[in-house]
Amino acid sequence: MRPMIITALRRAIGAVWAVLVVSLIGLAAWSHVASLVVITGASMAPAVPAGAVIGPAAVDPGDLVAGDILTVKADNGVILTHRVTRVVDLPEGRFFELKGDANATADPQLVPARAVMGRVDGYLPIAGYALALLSTPSGLVSILAGLLMLLVCIWLLEDIEVGLRGEVGHPATPKAAHGTPA
């Protein structure tokens, strides 16, 4: 192979490696600073796709209106992200009727304001898959092994590049003998 192609390939893999490392560190830091939720179902597609990460922002239930996307935590611990279709004020307090954008009908029960974790103002697509991997030991080992593999590829391409250039001091290039013949 030509040295230019090897150099370009090494630099491309190096850039991918650097972006992956920075992204994973940023995602891990973000997950420790904010309460993140990974969207596992497609009920909110296409507005919020499966595999997205959201960070529900705290909000006063009095400020919520129909059309807002909420993340709620049910009494049984299930976390759900759906759109508000109706706000209902009852003697017991404020309640919300929710519906997934991809669902045909609204959720069967009204959700009390106390269950609201926050409003969803944005999301990071696909990052939920990486966050889910980082949260398991086998996933963490897999990601680290992949990064190590890319690093080894960079080193191997660097060695090939040096060999093709014929730089002095590299094992692929014989060293000149110094001194006078006997």
What does this structure look like?
The protein is of the alpha+beta class. Helices cover 37% and strands 20% of the residues. It has helices at 3-33, 127-134, 137-165; strands spanning 37-38, 53-54, 69-73, 79-90, 93-99, 111-112, 116-119, 123-124. The strands form two sheets. A five-stranded antiparallel sheet has the order 6-5-4-3-7, with no helix packed on it. A hairpin with a 5-residue loop joins strand 3 (69-73) and strand 4. The two termini are 41 Å apart. 16% of the residues are buried. The mean pLDDT is 89.
Count of strand segments: 8
Distance between the termini: 41 Å
Give the CA-based shape. Answer: elongated
Compute the CA-based radius of gyration.
27 Å
Secondary structure: helix percent: 25-40%
Order of helices and strands: HEEEEEEEEHH
Helix and strand content put the structural class at: alpha+beta
- Strand content range: 15-25%
- Main-sheet strand order equals 6-5-4-3-7
Report on the biggest sheet: 5 strands, antiparallel
Mean pLDDT: 89
Number of domains: 2
Contiguous runs where pLDDT drops below 50 for at least 5 residues: none
Give the count of helical stretches: 3
Helix-strand blueprint:
Layout: H1 3-33, E1 37-38, E2 53-54, E3 69-73, E4 79-90, E5 93-99, E6 111-112, E7 116-119, E8 123-124, H2 127-134, H3 137-165
Antiparallel strand pairs: 1-2, 2-8, 3-4, 3-7, 4-5, 5-6
